[in-house]
Amino acid sequence: MEIDLELASGQEGRLNAPMDIRNDDNERNEVGNEIVGGGDGVDFNAVNDNKSGINSYMPQNGMEFETKESAYSFYREYARLVGFGITIKASRRSKKSGKFIDIKIACSRFGSKRPSSTAISPRACPKTDCKASMHIKKYPEGKWFVFSFVEEHNHEICPDDFYNAVRGKKNQSTNVVCQKKGLQLALDERDVRFLLDCFMQMQAEAPGFYHVIDFDKDARMRNVFWVDSKGRRDYVHFSDVVFFDTHYIRSKCNVPFVPVIGVNHHFQFILLGCALIGDETLSTFIWLMRTWLRAVSGRSPKVIITDNDKSLVEATSEVFPDAFHCFCPWHVFRDVGPNLSQKLTEFEVFVTKLKKCVYGSWTKEEFEKRWQKMVNKFDVTDNKWIQSLYEDRRKWIPTFMRNVFLGGFCTVERSQSVASYFDKYLQKGTTIEVFIDHYKLFLHESCEAEAKAQIKDQHAPPALISHSPFEKQMSKLYTHAIYKKFQAEVSGIVACTVGKEGEDERTIAYRVVDLERKQCFTVSWNKRKYDICCLCHLFEYSGFLCRHALSVLQLSGISTIPSNYILKRWTQKAKMRDTAHQASINTNFRIERLNDLCKLAIELGEEGSLSGKLIELHVML
């Protein structure tokens, strides 16, 4: 008797091996499968044959899953790779709870041959009493595990069996040809094989490499995600601001690439993850964000930056409910032309006014006045796109984000922004093979750039340009890149005049006139708490004090910058952690070291098996 397993979306499974099978997309109306390679857990790729993708996904006794759906999806993908159909041979429910506790998934050729009158179709898989199967059971605490696995089949492997089984369950004709969609339009079969081979190679070279392949209900690649070990380690130190860049999707590149980007203490953009996605739907973005979050141990960033796309907004809210979500300004200004150029006779003048309104307003009240004046002058008050920008003003207007640290990500010019990060590595016509070569080149060049910056910090002290004690203090702490930015603020002190504006029991308010910028700024200073705040909010926005705050400190007789205004993430010791935190990091990466040791043990075992002398030598070692 064949019993259909109740597969439900919205579930996820965890495997105590370097691959996960996940099916946690609540937005999909179809069952999808994922294969996750790399990451934490014992590396069964070392135990099996690293040269074989099939063996890399072979079930092992004792493997654990969070749900029965995850276990089924895992065996289903293994069957697809090998080339046989599967079905539920038997299952058992608990008498107390009524829930499944025991399931046997078998090759579709199990059992004896049916009479011809009961055949599903003329091409249905003939029964050969095949014993190949995976038997799973449920622990009392809720997880599922592989109780037994039988690999051998008593018939010739026929890849059509898998697809016939899938079509049979759907009561569809075996002659139906699946139309290409999503990622299949960008990657052909050869591209997919190339990509999978690259992942296998990367994982073999570095156990910390983590990748996820998302399959649709017809076992076709839907989305792909990966991140190398350096990206995962970097995120431990720089998890405050993360950018999901969909520029290359919007630009209709051949390779639908979405990089996940952070910034390190040298003000260099770092790659925290990569994805190739098949569409721009809400469900896909939720899958991408959840997958990335799992790859970095579930630690959510403080700030998420994305394009101003409705699906991205909803996905971010779903996956990162506690993070501050904002838009990249360049993305916003990029869309001004397509939305308004045909409707405005003075389009260039409008863009100039918009930039002045956005970047020249130091208070919310000032912004509101300028915005209303601008939309009235150009008669765009009723324009839906303009209305949406205004409604989302807290996500992209600097005045409304002055207390949000953005790590220097958000600029209005593309050439200065993170949006141009991969431009020299990826163009519209780039093929997947060329892209992977460029990706590897980028990793090499970025590692080299970081190493050079590190050496410069350690062996080439920056030159001082003034007698300011602030400059001397920070020259020993900041990295060269950040120090150069801070130095510009120190040199700007001479262009500032300071006057007391008011005072109460706790705080003194100063009026700072910035002659260079032709602006006046209010700076409040609480000497008792060493708390200072400027209207420009440069510290909150970029992480170092502005010339206006420095001018007030100098006038107040303060010769050193208070420690609470020195962000460690911008210092040369950004990657040094306290003992307790380092112990936590060591625990997170202990399994990765275990993976390395397991592989070495296998290699030594293979060598030792060749002769008795080698066995004796290894034992002595």
What does this structure look like?
The protein is an alpha+beta fold. It has five domains: 11-177, no CATH class; 183-207 and 218-328 and 409-460, no CATH class; 333-400; 469-570, no CATH class; 579-620, no CATH class. Helices cover 38% and strands 17% of the residues. It contains 22 helices and 19 strands. The protein has an eight-stranded mixed β-sheet, sandwiched between helices. The chain has a five-stranded antiparallel β-sheet with strand order 4-8-7-6-5, covered by helices on one side. Strand 7 and strand 8 (144-150) form a beta hairpin. The longest helix is centred in the C-terminal third of the chain and has 30 residues, at 579-608. The model is unreliable at 1-32, 39-52, 116-123, 170-178, 412-416, 579-588 and 617-621 (pLDDT under 50). This is Protein FAR1-RELATED SEQUENCE. Residues 521-557 form the SWIM-type domain. Keywords: Metal-binding, Nucleus, Zinc, Zinc-finger. It comes from Rehmannia glutinosa (Chinese foxglove). Belongs to the FHY3/FAR1 family.
